[in-house]
Amino acid sequence: MKHINHVRITLYFSLLFFVAVAAFATSAYAADKENCLMCHKYRFLGRIDEHGKKRNYNVDENIFNNTVHRNVPCRDCHTQIANLPHDPITEEVNCGNECHIKPPFSTENFSHKKIIQIYNKSVHGIKADDPEDLKAAKPYCKYCHLNPIFTKVEEERVASSTLRRCLNCHEEKGVSQAYKHITHRLRHKTSRSRQEIVKLCSYNCHENTALMARFNVSQESLESVETYKRSIHGKAVALGSEETADCVSCHATSSIHDVYKKDEMMSTVNERNLKRTCEQCHRDVSDEFIKIDVHSGITHDEKPFLHFLEVMLGFVLYGTIFSLLGLAVLETIGRKKDGIKWQIREGTTWRGISKRGF
């Protein structure tokens, strides 16, 4: 009898174990309906291409399951794959494809087409008459939006109590996701910090003056990163400010991707639009205020007066510092001559009575 009970208990726990494993496997591979991870889960899956570059085809399941694309089937992006197992892939993913998922409250399948149309018109968009080296240098979708950086937005700070009335009619999942996404976008233009935005625009692009010079950009553009970092905006952002203007704050609207040259009418830094752009952060913006050059290069030839003031302020700053250090050295020498001992004890570095009587 005891043996039978023991067998029953063993079978019971075995059944629970297999149910738990099945449930976990179902949730882990929810978006992988065609079992692509059966091959792509292996870390060393890859090859050396024709140019000698190593291509890694591994997909990290933990990263993928925490990205914004976690519910998108693989072939919604890799549309060129017709058979499984598939032939070698020769085409890049087109981010303008229409997905087979519908956002909350929408009747159409999701697509990035609107954003791509805005991007194509911008200064970063690839034009038909662009030289090949310029096309290769321009930032495309995957330059900015790479895993694991571009992950789902955590919105614990959003109060769920606001949703209670909505949930009387709507399903919680749909309305919660829509509410959290919209309120996040209302608070900030992007999911990244100011420091990340500046680094993204600078690294390998605008800070690379040799690359920029190849495309005949203006001298102001060549110095844009350096002059920004020297400005009050750049210094505040470098110190950790999340309220000061970064690159996107001035050079794009809430569409993010609509960056244009400043002489184009649509540009947010065009002289006709500067007042509206500055008013995003500053109050009582006057015509004189918008004439201030944010990316000002202070040189002797361009701005002799400002250059003179900068040099003089440098002399005053360093002169004050070295003067104070000199006074401290002279005072130390004088006290040593007067017989005052220099030691750290009981909260003071000087002990004894001066020969000068004070």
Rounded radius of gyration (Å): 31 Å
User: Which strand order does the major sheet show?
Assistant: 1-2
The major sheet is characterized as: 2 strands, antiparallel
Tally of alpha and pi helices: 16
**SSE order, one letter for each helix or strand:** HHEEHHHHHHHHHHHHHHEE
Show unreliable segments. 17-29
Structural class: mainly alpha
Which bin fits the share of residues in helices?
Answer: 40-55%
Description:
This protein has 358 residues and is mainly alpha-helical. Among the domains are: 152 residues, no CATH class; 36 residues, no CATH class; 46 residues, no CATH class. The chain contains 16 helices and four strands. The strands form two sheets. Strands 1-2 form a two-stranded antiparallel ribbon. Strand 3 and strand 4 form a beta hairpin. Helix 12 packs across helix 13. The radius of gyration is 31 Å and the shape is extended.
